[in-house]
């Protein structure tokens, strides 16, 4: 009898547990209601046939939006030549170097000029490797499932980045022209090399933590780190080529005059040709999900261990526009990052919030504002480009021009951006302090609000 009662009780417990686990699921009644809500009329049938057999973007393309747009810009920074990052996440590097490149082209009256992205990327990858390993040493006493340790092992290295990386790498290692250290197959497609470097660093991270757990002193851990960095350096040389320590270089200007051949080191070339104090630039952000007129800093968001964390001033978009216009009017290009995939007509090279009408196609509203898109991970900065032009009518911006790094795609290697798109999907802008008002510059004196590197706003930073 007891055995029978136990079996009955067990059955009841399982049944009750099963019933409770179903709470919140799609019931038969709910499913029936969902199914019957679809009317299956002739227009629904036509839409099903059309959408299931075609690309959604082509069907949602707002054709009326293709007409009536001129290609003129009232104010434009002079620049020549289009770069191509190819299958890599180095847009931050191309964008930062293109800001400096425009100055060099104008100063020396060149037809075209490119810095070596490969040279800067080489040192970026070595520095990021050291940054990871040093942080592993400094978190050696934390458990493996600690939030920061977990983040480190998830993100040991990558080819993405942002403006402070451009500043720290170029100031520390200088620059060289593209023909001195040209692109390699592994800069044009970084996937395999990045994967191998990540594997090596994660493995070394575990080894360092193991040495620390066994009581090895700090010097032993540093020796292990340097041993791994030597291996990383070798992998980088095999994959990207060996960075030059000195070189002889000359150029031809737009009039056909050839300069005198001179010997340079990367640092002397940077000093002689760039002649820009990169510390005069500041980063502005438009993040309406957080308070404006505040200074923010992203913890551990830097490219070199001895470099600078990323700091920015959060401002309303209208103020950022004013500073951008002042810079462009003075022939100074700007580092610009945005959520480029949203409403991009890549064939025409146009960023416009009205490019695609998904609401009419599906009969369903997509209505989140910028704040809501940030809060729900729907939108964040995904790509960096160089802002080079604005079209002003009655002193108000109508559209903007971005120099891209995707080769000769879009609008002759550029993207045209409407002012409304700027407001909705622009996130970061780097501008010379001289174009910024004194009250905004004073915000730099604030103690920054420190945000963790895994903050949703920076998960796809560029």
How are the secondary structure elements laid out?
Layout: H1 2-21, H2 28-37, H3 42-52, H4 56-60, E1 75-76, H5 91-108, H6 117-138, H7 147-154, H8 163-173, H9 185-188, H10 191-213, H11 218-240, E2 247-249, E3 262-264, H12 266-274, E4 281-285, E5 294-298, E6 310-314, H13 317-329, E7 334-338, E8 344-345, E9 350-351, H14 358-362, H15 370-375, E10 383-393, E11 396-403, E12 414-418, H16 419-425, E13 426-432, H17 438-441, E14 449-451
Parallel strand pairs: 4-6, 5-14, 9-12
Antiparallel strand pairs: 1-10, 2-3, 4-13, 5-6, 7-10, 7-13, 8-9, 10-11, 11-12
Approximate shape: globular
CATH architectural label = Alpha-Beta Complex
Give the CA-CA distance, first to last residue: 71 Å
- CATH secondary-structure class: Alpha Beta
Largest sheet: 12 strands, mixed
Oligomer: single chain
Round the Cα radius of gyration to an integer and report it.
27 Å
What is the domain tally?
A: 1
Residue-averaged pLDDT: 91
Uncertain segments: 1-21
Compute the number of strand runs. Answer: 14
Q: What is the helix fraction of residues, given as a range?
A: 40-55%
- Give the CATH topology: Cathepsin B, Chain A
| Helix-strand category | alpha+beta
CATH superfamily: Cysteine proteinases
Compact description:
This protein is an alpha+beta fold and 462 residues long.
What does this structure look like?
With 462 residues, this protein is α+β, with helices and mostly antiparallel strands. It has one domain: Cathepsin B, Chain A, CATH 3.90.70.10. It is 43% helix and 14% strand. It is built from 17 helices and 14 strands. Strands 1, 4, 5, 6, 7, 8, 9, 10, 11, 12, 13 and 14 form a 12-stranded mixed beta sheet that branches. A two-stranded antiparallel sheet has the order 2-3. Strand 8 and strand 9 form a beta hairpin. Helix 6 runs parallel beside helix 10 and helix 6 packs antiparallel against helix 11. The longest helix has 23 residues.
């Amino acid at each position: 009898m007891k055995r029978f009662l136990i079996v009955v009780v067990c059955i009841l417990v399982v049944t009750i547990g099963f019933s409770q686990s179903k709470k919140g699921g799609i019931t038969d009644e709910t499913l029936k209601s969902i199914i019957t809500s679809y009317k299956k009329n002739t227009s629904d049938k036509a839409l099903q046939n059309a959408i299931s057999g075609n690309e959604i973007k082509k069907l949602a393309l707002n054709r009326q939006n293709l007409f009536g747009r001129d290609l003129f810009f009232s104010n434009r920074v002079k620049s020549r030549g289009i770069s191509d990052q190819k299958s890599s996440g180095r847009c931050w590097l191309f964008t930062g170097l293109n800001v400096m490149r425009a100055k060099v082209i104008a100063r020396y009256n060149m037809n075209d000029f490119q810095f070596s992205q490969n040279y800067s990327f080489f040192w970026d990858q070595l520095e990021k490797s050291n940054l990871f390993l040093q942080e592993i040493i400094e978190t050696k006493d934390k458990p493996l499932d600690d939030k920061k340790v977990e983040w480190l092992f998830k993100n040991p290295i990558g080819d993405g980045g942002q403006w402070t990386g451009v500043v720290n790498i170029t100031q520390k290692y200088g620059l060289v022209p593209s023909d001195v250290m040209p692109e390699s197959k592994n800069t044009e497609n970084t996937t395999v090399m990045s994967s191998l470097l990540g594997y090596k660093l994660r493995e070394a991270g575990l080894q360092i933590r193991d040495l620390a757990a066994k009581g090895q002193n700090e010097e032993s851990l540093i020796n292990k780190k340097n041993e791994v960095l030597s291996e990383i350096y070798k992998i980088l040389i095999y994959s990207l080529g060996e960075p030059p320590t000195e070189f002889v270089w000359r150029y031809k200007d737009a009039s056909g005059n050839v300069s005198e051949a001179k010997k340079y080191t990367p640092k002397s070339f940077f000093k002689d040709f760039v002649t820009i104090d990169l510390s005069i630039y500041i980063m502005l952000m438009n993040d309406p999900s957080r308070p404006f007129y505040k200074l923010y800093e992203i913890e551990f968001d830097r490219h070199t261990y001895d470099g600078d964390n990323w700091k920015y001033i959060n401002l309303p978009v209208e103020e950022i526009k004013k500073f951008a216009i002042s810079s462009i009017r003075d022939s100074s290009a700007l580092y610009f990052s945005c959520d480029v995939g949203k409403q991009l007509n890549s064939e025409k090279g146009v960023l416009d919030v009205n490019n695609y009408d998904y609401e009419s196609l599906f009969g369903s509203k997509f209505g989140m504002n910028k704040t809501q898109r940030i809060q729900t991970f729907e939108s964040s900065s995904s790509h960096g480009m160089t802002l080079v032009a604005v079209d002003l009518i009655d002193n108000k911006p109508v559209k903007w021009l971005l120099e891209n790094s995707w080769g000769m795609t879009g609008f002759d290697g550029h993207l045209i951006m409407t002012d409304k798109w700027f407001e909705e999907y622009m996130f970061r802008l780097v501008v010379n302090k001289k174009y910024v008002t004194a009250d905004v510059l004073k915000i730099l004196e604030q103690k920054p609000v420190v945000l963790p590197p895994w903050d949703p706003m920076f998960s796809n930073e560029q």
